[in-house]
Design goal:
The structure holds 2 protein chains of 2 kinds.
Chain A (H helix, E strand, L loop, with lengths): L1 H6 L2 H31 L3 H15 L3 H15 L12 H30 L4 H9 L4 H16 L1 H14 L11 H11 L3 H29 L5
Helix pairs in contact in A: 2-3, 2-5, 2-9, 3-5, 4-5, 5-7, 5-8, 6-7, 8-10, 9-10
Chain B lengths: L3 E12 L2 E12 L3 E5 L6 H8 L7 E6 L2 E2 L5 H8 L1 E4 L11 H11 L5 H15 L14 H13 L5 E5 L7 H16 L3 E5 L3 H7 L2 E6 L2 E6 L1 H6 L4 H11 L2
Parallel strand pairs in B: 3-8, 3-9, 6-7, 7-8
Antiparallel strand pairs in B: 1-2, 1-4, 4-5, 9-10
The chains are: A mainly alpha, B alpha/beta.
Keywords (chain A): Amino-acid transport, Cell membrane, Membrane, Transmembrane, Transmembrane helix, Transport
Protein name (chain A): Glutamate ABC transporter permease
Membrane topology (chain A): Multi-pass membrane protein
């Protein structure tokens, strides 16, 4: 096992996993929040658009979404997210499109987690907000969403853990993250069980503290009623 | 009691098959304190909520200070800023401190500076007797304290009229008076108030007029004196007999 760790840059591969997870989590949070706002808005068209997005994206395998980003958008439609002249343009494009795909996919789950958070906010809070003259947007940003986020921390934690593990799918479009390296090592070496253990433990080290942190935060930040 | 501040004309509303407001006509003058009483299901809460359009109406008009209630949007938000509302369940913003609850409206709607809003907020908390609790969260306060904060939150907007939707119904008995005292004080200071309540003592002490509602209609209205001693309608006599015997 020590030999594997010496010969292969396992840490670097996990660093890519963290990099993918970090940026796609931010993207998913932003898109998911917008979707959640659309789904609770009084405008029918926005509600319909949000619902349609969630239903389509949530029910599509992540593999398909990433392959579509890579083959469909990057190679067929030629939409590049990296400088074509640079030496690392293929690598950069793969990574960036992987982040986009992961963000778009997990945004649907973030949206649903937030919407369950919105449901923890009593109707009276919105009525009180409107009664002091706040506009719809102000009620949302000042009163409803801050409480909805606090009520949604635990399910958001589950989404983040799923996202961290789902970064492994990015290896199919050529991103050198942890599971991609694992496959490579398994092809070259004989100690499969050891390799498997190294990567399993690596993911546990990433996800277990995440879960603990979110559980702690959900208790700490819970809105007392 | 000069020109009417709030005018309701031919207001109608249904909840499904239930006709909750039937041809309501009502005028409330500046500085007037009107208490609305009636059996549960009589439509009194709906009436109160319709005045700042938390409930929409199907026909008729409601005007406040000469302006007809607009559709949902910026204009309605502006109008609501001038109409204070106190709820049965307080509805303080659970994630904000007491002081932040009070200053949110002045800062976001009235565009006041933060320190200015906080200074006025503390004065109002002083007035309702909960200044000590300014940095606490709503859940840390008793019901009576929360309701007094809710009144201060409405007052911070300098409303032209205040609506009270059963403000003491969710309170323990020993906390009712502390809230009523604040309301009596407001009435003395000349605030225009529409109060839906079961507190007959408050009606006697502070109201200019009692409006009795039953089955979605205004059955009878009179001064508290007259209404409690000489109710004219059978429905009101029956209602008073039931609540005043114990």
């Amino acid at each position: 096992m020590g030999e594997i760790l010496r010969n292969y840059d396992v840490l670097d591969a996990f660093w890519m996993t963290i990099y993918l997870a970090f940026f796609s989590a931010i993207g998913a949070l932003v898109i998911g929040t917008i979707l959640a706002v659309m789904r609770v808005s009084p405008v029918g068209v926005l509600r319909w658009a949000g619902t349609t997005y969630v239903n389509i994206v949530r029910n599509t395998p992540l593999t398909l979404i990433l392959v579509f980003c890579s083959l469909g958008i990057l190679y067929i439609l030629q939409v590049s997210l990296a400088d074509e002249q640079s030496a690392t343009s293929i690598r950069d494009n793969n990574i960036r499109w992987a982040i986009v795909g992961l963000a778009v996919y997990h945004a649907a789950f973030v949206c649903e987690a937030l919407r369950s958070g919105v449901n923890t906010v009593p109707l009276g809070q919105a009525e009180a907000a409107r009664s002091i003259g706040l506009t719809f947007a102000q009620s949302l940003t000042q009163v409803i969403m801050p409480q909805a986020f606090r009520g949604a921390i635990a399910p958001l934690g589950s989404v983040l853990i799923a996202l961290i593990k789902n970064t492994t799918v990015a290896s199919i479009i050529g991103v050198a993250e942890a599971s991609g390296l694992m496959k490579e090592i398994m092809e070259n070496e004989t100690a499969s069980l050891g390799v498997f253990l190294i990567f399993a433990v690596g993911f546990v080290i990433l996800t277990l503290p995440t879960g603990l942190l979110f559980t702690w935060m959900s208790q700490r930040l819970a809105v007392k009623r | 009691m000069t020109e009417p501040l709030v005018v309701l004309k031919d207001v109608n509303k249904h909840f499904g098959d239930l006709h909750v407001l039937k041809d309501i006509d009502m005028e409330i003058g500046k500085g007037e304190v009107v208490v609305v009483i009636g059996p549960s299901g009589s439509g009194k809460s709906t009436l109160c909520r319709a005045i700042n359009r938390l409930e929409t109406i199907e026909s008729g008009t409601i005007t406040i200070d000469g302006k007809t209630l607009p559709e949902e949007g910026k204009a309605l938000a502006q109008l609501r800023a001038d109409v204070g509302m106190v709820f049965q369940s307080f509805n303080l913003f659970a994630h904000k401190t007491i002081l932040d609850n009070i200053t949110l409206g002045p800062i976001k709607v009235r565009k006041q500076k933060k320190d200015e809003a906080e200074k006025r907020g503390m004065e109002l908390l002083e007035r309702v007797g909960v200044a000590q609790q300014a940095q606490k969260y709503p859940a840390q306060l008793s019901g009576g304290q929360q309701q007094r904060v809710a009144i201060a939150r409405s007052l911070a907007m300098n409303p032209k009229v205040m609506l009270f939707d059963e403000p003491t119904s969710a309170l323990d008995p020993e906390m009712i008076n502390e809230v009523l005292d604040v309301m009596v004080g407001l009435a003395r200071d000349g605030m225009t108030m529409i109060v839906v309540t079961h507190e007959m003592g408050f009606a006697r002490k502070a109201a200019n007029r009692v409006v009795f509602m039953a089955d979605g209609q205004i059955v009878e209205q009179n001064t508290p004196e007259e209404f409690f001693t000489n109710p004219t309608s059978a429905r009101a006599q029956d209602f008073l007999a039931k609540i005043l015997t114990h």
